[in-house]
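Below is a filled-in request sheet from our internal design queue. Each sheet records the structural input a requester submitted and the sequence that came back. We keep these sheets so that new team members can see what a complete request looks like end to end.

REQUESTER: design group, bay 2
PRIORITY: normal
MODE: inverse folding
CHAIN LENGTH: 212
BACKBONE (tokenized):
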């Protein structure tokens, strides 16, 4: 599985990219139930659909995962098994975010694929007027033995950040990690206090630094 970034022409970057791809049903013993590729004018990404426990009737059936530029597998979205209202044909609906904003696609079978009982699907874009929430962030947090500290990572297809947290003696301390103008585009972030709605913002350059 591989991330391949591609720069689109300027006139295409101003519009939401179109998507296409393929999806294949794997054998029942495979770790991922489906594998495939999704393409646009800006990227080519290998994806996997991994079954997840359903919490309700409308909760997703699958996690959509991919491997980012650091080689880490991250969740980039969710997917549902669906049935067409008119045709009665099964398809898979996916909501995906690779760091460029969430988008929706459907994986559908052609008439020939259904007749042959093939596991091959085509990925087509779905136009939606509703708002979608991003599901592109993955991460882990692991307790360490000393000083009630935690280590972990947070990642998606665009960044991969490892960090360590140490409990403060004065209770909870809320901070934000942000990039100022000099840091933008790099791997260094400034730590600044969390700004409540009634507080005055502070200069990002006055904080501590966190280096990925």
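RETURNED SEQUENCE:
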């Amino acid at each position: 599985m591989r991330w391949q970034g591609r720069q689109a022409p300027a006139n295409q970057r101003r519009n939401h990219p179109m998507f296409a791809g393929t999806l294949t049903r794997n054998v029942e013993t495979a770790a991922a139930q489906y594998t495939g590729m999704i393409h646009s004018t800006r990227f080519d990404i290998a994806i996997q659909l991994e079954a997840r426990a359903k919490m309700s009737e409308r909760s997703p059936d699958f996690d959509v995962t991919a491997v980012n530029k650091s080689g880490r597998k991250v969740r980039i979205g969710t997917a549902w098994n669906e049935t067409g209202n008119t045709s009665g044909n099964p398809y898979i609906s996916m909501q995906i975010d690779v760091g460029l904003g969430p988008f929706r696609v459907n994986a559908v079978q052609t008439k020939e694929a259904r007749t042959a009982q093939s596991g091959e699907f085509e990925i087509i874009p779905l136009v939606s007027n509703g708002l979608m929430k991003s599901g592109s962030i993955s991460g882990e947090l692991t307790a360490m033995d000393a000083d009630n500290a935690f280590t972990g990572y947070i990642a998606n297809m665009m960044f991969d950040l490892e960090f360590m947290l140490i409990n403060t003696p004065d209770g909870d301390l809320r901070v934000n990690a942000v990039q100022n103008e000099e840091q933008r585009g790099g791997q260094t972030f400034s730590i600044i206090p969390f700004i409540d709605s009634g507080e005055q913002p502070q200069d990002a350059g006055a904080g501590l630094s966190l280096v990925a």
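SHEET NOTES:
- The first strand starts at residue 3 and ends at 5.
- Residues 31 and 50 are 7 Å apart (CA to CA).
FILED BY: M.R.
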